[in-house]
Each structure stands twice: as structure tokens, then as C-alpha cells.
């Protein structure tokens, strides 16, 4: 198949919404198609309540979707029992119950992402991010108090200039035993390279560093829940937001230079599994012992360039996908033209990709320690990029987002 290189008309909000709903439809189908990868509790055990933040942003949404797919209600659909004429006799639930009862925070209950996570089985709770600190504190207190026996939080930050404040208020409430008395462990999703000298001048890494400082400041002391700073490399799911541009140009247009930079990208599928394993390690008490550490890193176990990513997309999609190097200024125009790219997301993408051009000394391009990978994903390997392209193939095919 060949890609059309004709530039389409400017996108409308309707097209962006259509892509979003297509992503949701695809993910719903994937949820119901993955029973072989599911772990479950015994039939007499109650699901453990957990909370995933910012589920109406792409990364939080994918986290919620994958937790529900592999460990939540979506993994165990009700079975219809019928007679020989296919008349429904009754329903029979699965013999096992989900591991988790998943709750999600969203900034807008009316958004398409919020509707999608509710359809997948997540109970949503609204947190207005532009509220004052006192209003935020009250909102977080109300949300956490409304989840009986809350045991774990996956804190997925919406990084930006206020990310440190948002994390400080949320995690202060989480550390308060009067608000969340049974909260046991918090997994904070951060960025590989955070805190290093090679990224100190990049705003996005400053924002992630502020989130990490907030976690260390609030989640301390014998009474606070334990926590893990899970530093993730570039998430391949960011290409979902770029799907229409990739369709339009038949290429990855990225500011990574002629050689395509140095990346070790992951799918958030593996970040979700790592978070689950951290929760289990916390329950057993192992999370405070080696090989677990308070800061852990998850990356692909080898390096790739943007040209390698384009080649893996070509293989998976059976299309000719190229790589077009662009300048930072051109990348700003590209990202800003895409409906789902907020100004803070544009900055984050630019800075993460900038780090990929700086070489290993920048700190965000080193591979995760082997012991981290083995502890976070016991018996598993990080999914390669070709797996990601195949998983979301219909979104990248010509017309896939129409």
C-alpha cells in the first residue's frame, strides 16, 4: 500500500473528536480481546480499590484503560448462558473477580476521555486543576474520602508550570491517614532523565522534578504510604496524538536531526504492568527491599532512532513510513496544529525529544538497569515498537482517523 502525500484540509474539532472516539473504540475492543494476559483474585476476594489520576489526558487514560483491561472489571465480562435455540437463559459471571476496582480523576466530567473511561468501568471523580490551593485540597480530601479502603494510587501528572503544586496538594491529602487510612502505596509516573545535569535547562524535566520533590516532601514519615518514582522513557502512545499528521505525510516528522536521535521508548502497557507489580510488592513488603528502590526506571532494553521507529512502523503497518527531520521551530508548528496538543504538551514533547539529541550524557538516553527491569516486569520483556504499531494499526492507516 502507498500513502497519499496530498495535504488534507485543516483539521476541525470534529475530526479530532472522531479520532479520539476511534481510539476509544479500538481500546474497548482490545480490552475485550486480552483475557490471556489477565491475573485475577480468587472468587471470594474483593477487588482492591485504586485511583489513577488525570484519566482525561492521554497518558492517564491509557493507564486506566490498561488497568481495566488486564486487572479490572473489563477483563472478566459476564457470560450469557443460552439454550439450543440461543435464547438467553441467564447470565453467569466469571469464576474469578477482578484484582482492582479502578477509580479515576478527571478535570472535566463531560469530556470524551471521561466518558470513555466510564464506559470501560472506571468510576470518575472531578478535580478542577485551576482551583486555588485550598479548593484543590478540599477536592482531593473529598475524592479520597469517597473511596472506601483505597489501597493504591497511580499518580500520572499533567506536567506543566503548576505540576509541583498539583502534586503537592494531591499527595499531601494522600499522606493524611484521616483522609486515606488504608492507602498503602503510591506509584508516581515520572520521566527518565529527571534530576540530571543534562536536562536541568529543559522545562519539561523541571516540571517532572517538581513532581518528584512534592512526592518526597509529602510522602515521608512512618505513617505515610510508601511510594515509587517510576521514571519512564518516551511513551510510544504519544504517536496516537500525531496519527493524522503521520497519515498526511506518510512519515514521522520529528526534531531529532538527520540521524534520528537516541531513544529507548516504551509502551505504557508495560508501565501499567510495572505499576501493578509495584502494588503487589508493596502488599508483600518487598517494595522496601532490594532490588526495589524508591526511584526505578523503565525503558526499552536497546536503543533506537527515529529512523528505526519509522522502519518498525513500515513493517507493522505494511506501509512505507518515512522519517522527516524538522527543526524545533517547525516542530512547534506541527505539534501546535494538532488538536490534542496543549501548549504544555508541546513543550514536553519538544524537551523530551531535545534530550534524545544530546547523547547518553544527558541521562535520559541510558538504558534502565537490568535489576530494575527484572523487578518491575518479572518474567516479561518490554514490548518492542513494532508491537505498538501493530496494536494501533487501524489508527495509522490512511483514513483511520476520519
Automatic annotation (TrEMBL):
It comes from the Eukaryota. The keyword Signal applies. Keywords: Signal. Residues 1-33 form the signal peptide. This is NmrA-like domain-containing protein. It comes from Allomyces macrogynus (strain ATCC 38327) (Allomyces javanicus var. macrogynus).
Amino acid at each position: 500500500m502507498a500513502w497519499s502525500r496530498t495535504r488534507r484540509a485543516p483539521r476541525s474539532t470534529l475530526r479530532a473528536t472522531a479520532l479520539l472516539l476511534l481510539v476509544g473504540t479500538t481500546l474497548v475492543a482490545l480490552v475485550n480481546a486480552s483475557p490471556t494476559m489477565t491475573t485475577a483474585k480468587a472468587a471470594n476476594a474483593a477487588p482492591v480499590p485504586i485511583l489513577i489520576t488525570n484519566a482525561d489526558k492521554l497518558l492517564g487514560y491509557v493507564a486506566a484503560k490498561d488497568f481495566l483491561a488486564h486487572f479490572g472489571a473489563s477483563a472478566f465480562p459476564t457470560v450469557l448462558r443460552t439454550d439450543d435455540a440461543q435464547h438467553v437463559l441467564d447470565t453467569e459471571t466469571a469464576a474469578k473477580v477482578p484484582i482492582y476496582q479502578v477509580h479515576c480523576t478527571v478535570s472535566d466530567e463531560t469530556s470524551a476521555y471521561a466518558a470513555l473511561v466510564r464506559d470501560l468501568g472506571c468510576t470518575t471523580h472531578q478535580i478542577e486543576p485551576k482551583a486555588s490551593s485550598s479548593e484543590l485540597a478540599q477536592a482531593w480530601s473529598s475524592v479520597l474520602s469517597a473511596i472506601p479502603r483505597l489501597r493504591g494510587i497511580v499518580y500520572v501528572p499533567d506536567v506543566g508550570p503548576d505540576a509541583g503544586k498539583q502534586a503537592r496538594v494531591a499527595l499531601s491529602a494522600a499522606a493524611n491517614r484521616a483522609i486515606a487510612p488504608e492507602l498503602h502505596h503510591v506509584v508516581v509516573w515520572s520521566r527518565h532523565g529527571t534530576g540530571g545535569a543534562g536536562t536541568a535547562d529543559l522545562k519539561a524535566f523541571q516540571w517532572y522534578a517538581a513532581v518528584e520533590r512534592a512526592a518526597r516532601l509529602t510522602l515521608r514519615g512512618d505513617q505515610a504510604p510508601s511510594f515509587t518514582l517510576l521514571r519512564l522513557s518516551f511513551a510510544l502512545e504519544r504517536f496516537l496524538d500525531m496519527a493524522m499528521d503521520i497519515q498526511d505525510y506518510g512519515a514521522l516528522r520529528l526534531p531529532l536531526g538527520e540521524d534520528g536521535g537516541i531513544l529507548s521508548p516504551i509502551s505504557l502497557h508495560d508501565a501499567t504492568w510495572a505499576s501493578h507489580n509495584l502494588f503487589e510488592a508493596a502488599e508483600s513488603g518487598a517494595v522496601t527491599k532490594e532490588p526495589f528502590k524508591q526511584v526505578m526506571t523503565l525503558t526499552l532494553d536497546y536503543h533506537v532512532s527515529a529512523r528505526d521507529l519509522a522502519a518498525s512502523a513500515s513493517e507493522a503497518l505494511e506501509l512505507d513510513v518515512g522519517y522527516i527531520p524538522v527543526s524545533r521551530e517547525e516542530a512547534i508548528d506541527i505539534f501546535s496544529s494538532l488538536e490534542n496538543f496543549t501548549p504544555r504538551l508541546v513543550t514536553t514533547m519538544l524537551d523530551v525529544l531535545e534530550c534524545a539529541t544530546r547523547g547518553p550524557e544527558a541521562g535520559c538516553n541510558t538504558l534502565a538497569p537490568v535489576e530494575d527491569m527484572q523487578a518491575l516486569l518479572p518474567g516479561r520483556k518490554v514490548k518492542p515498537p513494532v508491537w505498538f504499531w501493530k496494536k494501533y494499526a487501524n489508527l495509522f492507516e490512511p483514513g483511520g482517523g476520519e
